[in-house]
Design a protein that fits this description.
This protein has helices at residues 2-20, 31-50, 77-89, and strands at residues 59-64, 67-74, 95-102. The protein is an alpha+beta fold. It has a single domain (30-102), classed as Histidine-containing Protein, Chain: A. A 3-stranded mixed β-sheet has the order 1-2-3. The longest helix has 20 residues, at 31-50. The N and C termini lie far apart (75 Å).
């Protein structure tokens, strides 16, 4: 009976420790959040690629916890505005951080 108590405690501790490995912290995303951000990044890149007048290869996209950061160099302020607008329309985007520069 005593061994069963120790074994149960050991299993519970093991379950608790393994579940902590999947939790997010202030500096690291959970696996689910990372996948969500990857999907958002892909959707934003696709939307920018499909937008006439934007050179998508000059725009980098990074997503952290639903916040999309656009960086790179484009030809004009209107392209910056268009890229930000396109990113905002993508489902799951919480906000857009504009780090784009003009030539």
């Amino acid at each position: 009976m005593k061994q069963l108590k120790y074994f149960s405690a050991f299993v519970m501790a093991l379950v608790l420790l393994s579940s902590l490995g999947c939790a997010s912290t202030s500096t690291q995303d959970s696996t689910g959040q990372y996948l969500d951000d990857s999907v958002i990044t892909t959707k934003v890149k696709t939307a920018i690629l499909n937008e006439p007048g934007l050179k998508s290869f000059d725009i980098s996209v990074k997503t952290v916890k639903g916040v999309v950061e656009l960086s790179g160099v484009v030809d004009s302020r209107s392209e910056i505005s268009k890229a930000v607008e396109v990113a905002h329309r993508v489902e799951g985007v919480q906000s857009v951080k504009d780090e784009l520069k003009t030539k």
